[in-house]
Write a structure and sequence with these properties.
Helices cover 69% and strands 7% of the residues. By secondary structure, it is mainly alpha-helical. Strands 1-2 form a two-stranded antiparallel sheet.
Length: 116
């Protein structure tokens, strides 16, 4: 039978998974402290009782949440790279002349033609 720390950790992992899938970064931040406390409690519980079979389920849940976190971080990195590229494009772009030398080509101004 699993102990109280195991059940609390499972509940926290379910909340963390839901927050990751919803993109709720505030909820993820709020889970850090309770998760650390439950992990410390789980370590004490395991030292007293040994490793119960319920840990296999927790291990699977932890691996799933870890994959979700990696995917979320990858998405954030891609978003940062895209934002950097867009900021860089505002100042113009690089082109090359016939001899292969790089030249800066200014970005077009904010000229907008209105036709009546």
């Amino acid at each position: 039978m699993s102990g109280p720390a195991t059940m609390r950790l499972a509940a926290l992992l379910a909340r963390e998974k839901a927050a990751l899938l919803a993109g709720d970064m505030a909820e993820l931040g709020a889970l850090v402290s309770p998760k650390r406390a439950v992990m410390a409690e789980l370590e004490r519980e395991l030292a007293e009782t040994g490793a119960p079979a319920a840990l296999a389920d927790l291990e699977r849940d932890l691996a799933h949440v870890a994959r979700l976190l990696e995917a979320a971080l990858g998405g954030l990195r891609e978003g940062q790279a895209r934002a950097r590229a867009l900021r860089a494009a505002r100042g113009g772009f690089a082109t090359y002349d016939r001899e292969g030398r790089a030249e800066a080509a200014p970005a077009p101004g904010r000229a907008l033609r209105h036709k009546a």
